[in-house]
Amino acid sequence: MAFGQDASEAFAKVAPYRDGAVYVSYYSGSSEWERHPNGDEVVMVLGGTTTIVLLTNTKEERFFLAGHELIVIPMGVWHRFEGSDRLKVMTITPQPTEHSLETPAT
Q: Cis link prior to 96 (omega < 30° from 0)?
């Protein structure tokens, strides 16, 4: 995922924010599914490109993002990053975060 690094080296916590934190990361590749049951997540692309996949009512919706574009992922919606290319991203992520390697049932 992260140019030959493990995932922990691709993400850095910048500051606490409410019940979560502001993170920045830099990597290429795709991520596992995740969701945040206690709040919306803000994702802003600082550089590179990615596709955000949202899973709603068993349908995958794809949103291509490039530098200086953002998306707000609604509370409780499963999502993942797909085909990220040299992605530099900042997220405001509420906790907890639930993860799934397989496509979740909605």
A: yes
